[in-house]
Amino acid sequence: MSFLLTHIEDDIATLMIARPKVNAINEPLTEELLACFRDLAGEPRVKAVIITGQGKFFSFGLDIPEFLTYPKEAFTRFATKFATLYTEIFLHPKPVIAALNGHTIAGGCMIATACDMRIMVSGRHRISLNEINFGSSLFPGSVEMLRYWVGNKNAENVAFTGAMYSAQQAKAMGLVDQVVSQEALADHALTAARQFALRYGPAFESIKSLLRREVGDLMKQKDERYGPDMVDIWYSKNAWEQLQNIKIHE
Fold this sequence. Notes:
- This protein is α/β, with parallel strands linked by helices and 250 residues long.
- The protein has a single domain, classed as 2-enoyl-CoA Hydratase, Chain A, domain 1, CATH 3.90.226.
- It has nine helices and nine strands.
- Strands 1-2-3-5-7-9 form a six-stranded mixed β-sheet, with helices on both faces. Strands 4-6-8 form a three-stranded parallel β-sheet, covered by helices on one side.
- A hairpin with a 2-residue loop joins strand 1 (4-9) and strand 2.
- Helix 3 packs antiparallel against helix 8.
- The two termini are 21 Å apart.
């Protein structure tokens, strides 16, 4: 079953996460996203990519109820795939715009921060890396993406507090680039994608690599070195008890 709707028009690819009810991330969705981004990297028709969500959520984050059924070895396998996904998006050779149509939480926030630009709807929707609130750590490489966009001090505030930020608050710290109405989101994302698409592809890819390759290498190193520690914390008694109390509500 596919959880990803894809559409290519002119030279823009749009990916829509469509996994009821809150676009929670599981292993099949991660595999599907990874395969899609790899295909798009070599697709000459595509000059830019938009990723968005269906419904009220961009993504709730990891599908915690599903992952509570995973033994530790299986979750470690997933964690490796998910870290590979956000690293490859962060280093993707083509421009990637995140059209954040709703709540963008935890793993959903990690996917968003892997993109080149984030456009988020105004209103009650929130963006957060809230893992600390349920006793979990962050994916190690995702911390470097966060620091890349918002700097050290803001990254500490985001990670240590697990705060839920409005789009306007996120924009003030550099986590979000534009804040628009729900009705205007698609048009603004398409405009941004078209502006990126006008740039000469090889030049964009080269400059992006110059800006990000060292960060990407550090992300991979941290995920390899500290990923097992993150998994150990996920399976700790404290975190496990809190994770079991998390319910997914639309």
